[in-house]
Design brief:
Layout (H helix, E strand, L loop, with lengths): L1 E5 L10 H4 L7 E9 L5 E4 L4 E4 L10 E7 L1 H10 L7 E12 L4 H10 L1 E8 L33
Length: 156
């Protein structure tokens, strides 16, 4: 099992959360809520208003999201879904645990004791330079006050 941190459309209540609970794509178990230890720019960009975490550590905000434990099948699905490695790159990042629901195992004890876990995160280093000047967000919500409605893949 691998740990994945999601900050955009895959979170609970967001347009692509359905994929996280579709067991035909693999298993994803919600572990808790967290935020990046380092600051990153989270922007909403492109004609489909997709959230992107730009891999520029130290710029932007601590980004809020959810921590999941996923099996190899789900990790492979997420790689494909996120267009890895072209659109997003899957990298390990330190995530500060805000609220932990995970049960059992050494990982839980270590996570709660230190308050930080390492998770795979889909961020990007392959983006147009003008995205750096877009507004930065600390928490993505597809129906947030930014007014930029996410366009589902089925509708593109």
């Amino acid at each position: 099992m691998a740990r994945v941190f999601v900050y955009g459309t895959l979170k609970k209540g967001q347009p692509n959360y359905k994929h996280m609970i579709n067991t035909a794509k693999g298993l994803a178990k919600f572990q808790g809520r967290g935020r990046t230890v380092e600051k990153y720019p989270l922007v909403i960009a492109g004609k489909y208003n997709i959230p992107y975490m730009l891999n520029i550590p130290g710029t932007g905000h601590q980004v809020a999201g959810e921590i999941y434990s996923v099996d190899d099948q789900m990790l492979q699905f997420l790689d494909e879904f996120e267009g890895c490695p072209d659109m997003y790159q899957r990298t390990l990042m330190r995530i500060e645990v805000v609220e932990w629901e995970g049960k059992g195992g050494v990982g839980e004890a270590r996570a709660t004791a230190e308050g930080v876990v390492e998770c795979f995160v889909y961020s990007t280093m392959t983006y147009p330079p003008e995205w750096v000047s877009l507004p930065y967000h600390d928490n993505y919500d597809s129906s947030g006050k930014h007014g930029l409605s996410y366009v589902l893949r089925e509708s593109r």
